[in-house]
Amino acid sequence: MIRATHQRGIILKSRREIELMRRAGRVVHAVLQRMKELAAPSGTTAGLNEVAEEMIARAGGVPLFKGVENPQAKYPFPAALCTSVNEVLVHGIPDDRPLAEGDIVSFDCGVRLDGYCGDAATTLSIGRVSPQTQRLMDVTRRALELAMAEMRPGRMWSEIASAMQAYVEGEGMSVVRDFVGHGIGREMHEEPKVPNYWEPRQRRFDFRLQPGMVLAVEPMVNLGKRDVDYSGDARWAVVTRDGKYAAHFEHTLAVTDDGIDCLTDGR
């Protein structure tokens, strides 16, 4: 049974609902694994998106992102995947530009299956990348792993967000402020907002972790400064203002009695 908590309309999920979300998460995981196998120099993000759309359709799912409207944008998002290359942080639209050795691509995939959603992202290297770029990807992935290790009932989200921010900034990189994670369930975006950083002025938006919460946790890290802008007339792709590379990792995580249950790791 779905029930709202006193914490700003956050919807707790039953064990049955969590298992339905895991089914959607398995499709997301399979798509991202296939991207790891196929992403290579001379390939295109448009071609990879076609593969993703076919996989989602064969699984009986619906791509979460396709058709989403953004009041800033000229048209609804046109693809199943967000494919964000190099300095593009998030919401990159798949296109026919060949990928090149040294590029990195963030693949963000969301699926609705039997009424429930799964959402995850990974950043992949195209061929060999510079040590600095590899370190960016490693730090961003480890920030997500840190959050997963620290999450458990009773902790305030501010504790987790502060730990992620301290780690990333301690590595000389920046945590993006403009985009954050989110609750997820029957809808892709539910309460609460799940930031990857913390400031005292956010105190009224803090929340306490409790079993049944399901959160899409997604650190977004810039190699340079944290500032971002929209790119081009379409106003979908978000790019780093200083042109330096960005990375993005995400999992859908259910809070359990003693920690978390990852719903997008393929289990």
Structure notes:
This protein has 4 helices and 17 strands. α1 packs antiparallel against α2. Helices cover 27% and strands 25% of the residues. It has a 5-stranded antiparallel sheet. It has a single domain, classed as Creatine Amidinohydrolase, CATH 3.90.230.10. It is α+β, with helices and mostly antiparallel strands and 267 residues long. It is globular.
Please report the distance between the alpha carbons of the first and last residues.
23 Å
> How many domains comprise the coordinates?
1
Query: How do the strands line up in the largest sheet?
Result: 10-9-11-16-17
* Overall average pLDDT: 95
How many strand units?
17
CATH domain class name: Alpha Beta
Order of helices and strands: EEHHEEEEEHHEEEEEEEEEE
Into which percent range does the helicity of residues fall?
25-40%
- Shape, please? globular
Q: State the major sheet.
A: 5 strands, antiparallel
Which residues form runs of ≥5 with pLDDT under 50? 1-6
Residue fraction in strands:
25-35%
CATH architecture: Alpha-Beta Complex
Q: Which class of secondary structure composition applies to the elements? A: alpha+beta
Compute the number of helices.
4
- Full CATH superfamily name: Creatinase/methionine aminopeptidase superfamily
CATH topology, by name, is Creatine Amidinohydrolase
State the assembly state of the protein chains.
Answer: single chain
The radius of gyration is 17 Å
